[in-house]
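#struct-queue
[09:14] JT: dropping the first one here, sequence first, then the structure tokens:
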Amino acid sequence: MALMQENEFLSLDVEEQEAENQPKRLKTREKRTKLSQRDIFISFVEQNPEVLDNNDAAYAKKWKILASKLNTIEPKKSTSAWIKNLKEWEYSLKSKYNKAKKNSRVATEMSNFEMRALAAFGII
């Protein structure tokens, strides 16, 4: 059922549908997400933890709101691109945290910002 909701959500993304109609081009590297955008993301997750649960009824609506906030700063992305980008960052942080924890170096290898993000994700 979660997969169906996610597919419905992705089909709502007009930007993505328009991109499919464009002629195929060489894949170019996306611009990097700025720290200020990640800060907006973490603040939003702290206030709206349901944005991390794609089984929640408000999931798609919350992501659209979040994407519009993130797009106030360059680079701008579609809602589905933000979901992918920020999920990848979450997994990257989890991996870094687990590696640091295994080596007993969490305090030295993880920044306060990263620890705040991990707390928002419910990892620590």
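[09:21] JT: and here's the second one, same format:
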Amino acid sequence: MQSTLPLHRLATRPIIQLRRLAFPFPSRHLSSSSRRLTPAEQPKIAAYESIGVSLKPGEEVWWCRCGRSQEQPFCDGSHEGTGLEPLQWLVPPPKNKPDDTTTPRTIRFCQCKHTKTPPICDGSHKQLKK
């Protein structure tokens, strides 16, 4: 049975069972192997800027790694056949209020797909040629 919810909003497991991802994120985020990506597997630059999205701590999202999604910065399944998979990410609580799980936070997501801290923008788009 398929859900009609967008892929980036699906939560198939209880939050408690989700693996928490903490800063800093792994730098090898585009491929699970050590081989170089072919041109067809390279991520498409969706935009040369970050995008701010308001999310609550503990909310699960699926960040698009391929750049082909029409629902940027989230996955819509357009990566099929690219060799790139979306990144499952759990919104962390604010550092100054670790127990606050109700107040939404604005997260700056990368859209150029070249960040070293996925899915968070690190300004890498400033170094790319347009």
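[09:30] RK: nice, looked through the second one.
[09:31] RK: Residues 42-129 form one domain.
[09:31] JT: good to know. The chain is about 0% helix and 15% strand.
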